[in-house]
C-alpha cells in the first residue's frame, strides 16, 4: 500500500494513514489496514528499523516521533472501529428483523379454527348437568383399582362366574390381591360409601363419570377404552319406583320428551333385583329399524337396588338404609344422541368427523 522507500517521510505517512483510517468502510477492512500500517512489514516498522542507523540525538527525536505517531494511529483505529462496529450491528439487526405481521400471498393464515371439546367430553358434561339439576353431586375415582374395589366389594368374589362379564386388563397379579384397570365405574360406589360412612355424611346421591377399560375387540358398538357414568343413591326408604322414575326423568331430560325408558329383568351381582334399561331407539323413534333389530328399543345400561352384601362390605346397615344404583356408557349415549353408526370413529381423531359436533 505504501511504497516503502528511503524517501518516504514520516509526516506524509501519518497524513495518508489518517485519511485511510477515516475512509475505511468495514471493521474487516480496518483490520487489514491496521496490519498494513503498523504490522511487521509496515512503513512504521521500517521506520523503527532505521533507528539503529542513526546517531544518538537523531535517534531520540525520531524515536519519540514514531511513538507519538503509533499512539495516535492506534487511537484513531480504535475510534473508527467502534463507529463501524455499531453501524454493522445496526445493519445486521435491521436485516434480520422478523415482521410478525408480515403477510405474503401464498402464506395464508392457518385455516384451522379454535377447536372445541370432544363429543364424548361434551356428552359427559351434558349428562352431569342433567343429574346435577336432579340433585346429584358429581364424584370421581381411580382408574387403577384393586381386585377388591372392582370386584370383591361389589359381591363378585374370586372365581365367581360373574367375573366372565368383564374381560379385565390385570396390571399385577398378586397372591392376595391383584391390581387392574377398572372395568366399570361401579368401584367408585364403594369409595363413595366408604367416605360417607367414615365422615357420617349419609344419605348419598352421586353420579360418577369416568374412563373404563375392557379387554374387548373394538367394534361398531364397543371400545376397549370407553366411558361410563355411575349413579348411586343411598337413603332411607328408597324403592324400585324411585329408580325407575329417576331413569325416566333422566332419559327425557337428555334425549328429549319423545324418548322413553323401560326396565327388563337382568342379573348383576351388586344389585338385587337388577335390571337392564333400554330407551326408545333414537334412529327410528320406536318404529323398528336395523339398529334396534326391529324392537324399537336400544339398551343403554344396567341398574338395580343395592345388594345388602355390598352394604355389608362398606359397613352400612341394610335395615336402616336402602339404595339404588345404575351405570351406562357415555360413548353409547353420544352414539345414540348423534346417530353415530360406528363408535370407533370417536377415537380415530379424524377432525372432519369430530368437527361436526
Ligand atoms: N357396572 C355394570 C357394567 O359395567 C353396569 C351396572 C349395572 C352398574 C347395574 C350399576 C348397576 O350401578 O346397578 O356392566
Question: Would you mind describing this structure in some detail?
Answer:
The protein is of the alpha+beta class and 357 residues long. The protein has helices at residues 10-23, 27-38, 43-50, 56-96, 119-133, 147-150, 186-199, 240-255, 308-314, 330-338, 351-354; strands at residues 137-138, 144-146, 170-172, 179-181, 204-213, 225-235, 261-268, 271-280, 297-306, 322-329. The chain has 2 domains: 2-95; 119-354, 2-Layer Sandwich (BirA Bifunctional Protein, domain 2), CATH 3.30.930.10. 40% of the residues lie in helices and 19% in strands. Strands 1-5-6-10-9-8-7 form a 7-stranded mixed β-sheet, with helices on both faces. A 3-stranded antiparallel β-sheet has the order 2-4-3. The chain is elongated. 29% of the residues are buried. Mean pLDDT is 92; it is low at 1-7. The chain binds 3,4-dihydroxyphenylalanine. Residues 184, 186, 230, 268, 271, 274, 301-304, 325-327 line the site of 3,4-dihydroxyphenylalanine (DAH).
CATH superfamily of the largest domain: Bira Bifunctional Protein, Domain 2
List the strand order in the largest sheet. 1-5-6-10-9-8-7
Number of alpha- plus pi-helical segments:
11
Taking the alpha carbons of the first and last residues, their distance comes to 79 Å
The top-level CATH class of the largest domain is: Alpha Beta
Number of domains: 2
